[in-house]
Amino acid sequence: MLTIIPDKAAFVLEVHRRLYEIYGVRIEYFHDLDPLSELVTTLLSHRTKNRDSAQAFQNLRNAFGSWENVRDADVDAIMPQLKPCTWPEQKAPRVKEVLRLITEKLGQLNLDFLGGMEVTAARQWLEELPGVGPKSSAAVISFSTLRGKALPVDSHHFRVASRLGIIDAKIGEGKANRVLEDLLPPNFTARETFDHHQVMMRHGQKVCLYYKPDCAACIILDLCSTGQSIVAKKGN
Questions:
Q1: CATH superfamily assigned to domain 35-143
Q2: DSSP-derived 3-state class of residue 117
Q3: Cβ count within 10 A of residue 168
Q4: Architecture of 8-27+152-235 per CATH?
Q5: Nearest to 188 by CA among 5, 4, 2, 17
Q6: Tell me, what's the pLDDT at 216?
C-alpha cells in the first residue's frame, strides 16, 4: 500500500536534506564527456554494471577512434567490443543506428547544440531516437559537459523513492522520472538536481538494498513506513 504523504514536495526536500548530510560531501561529476559520447555510454549502460559499460565504451574508442568510424563499421565488428555489456547483439546495431540517425538529422555527429535549447525541448529531441527514454535523456543533459538541469532516475533511486511512498512502484522507472523531477523545488539548480539523484542512488546502493535493506541503520527510517515494517518484523 502506498503511504499517504500530504505534502510530497516538502517530504522529498526533507529526504534530500538528510541524505545530503551523509552523502553530500565531495559529490563530483563522474563524467566529463561531450553529449554525444554521454549518449553512447548511456545506451551501453542499460541493464549493465557501470564498470562493464565503461569498459565497452572504452573498447569502442580504442577500436574505432571516432564515432564516425563506429557509425560506418559493420555490426559484426562493433559487437565484440561490447562483450562486457549485457545484450551486445542488441546494443551494437542500436548504437550504429542512433549514430546514423543523428548524422541524418544534423549532417554531423555532434550534440553540443543541445546546450542552446530549453531542457524540455532538448530531452524531447533525444527521446525521438531509438532506445532513448526519460532516464537516458536526463543522463545526457545532466551528466555530460552540458551540465543541464535534469533528473535521471536509476533502479536504486527508484527503489528508495517507492519504498518511501513518494511514488507507486507500479508506474515504472520511465514515468517515475517526470514525477520525481516535478517534486523537486523549482529553484533547485542543475547541480542540486544532480546531487539529489546522487544521494538517492547512493542510499539505495549502501543502505536501501534490494535484498536485505539495512533499515535499522537508515537515517530516514522515521519517514519510511516500509522500513519500519521491516524492522518490526525482525523484532518479532
A1: Hypothetical protein; domain 2 (1.10.340.30)
A2: coil
A3: 14
A4: Orthogonal Bundle (1.10)
A5: 17
A6: 92
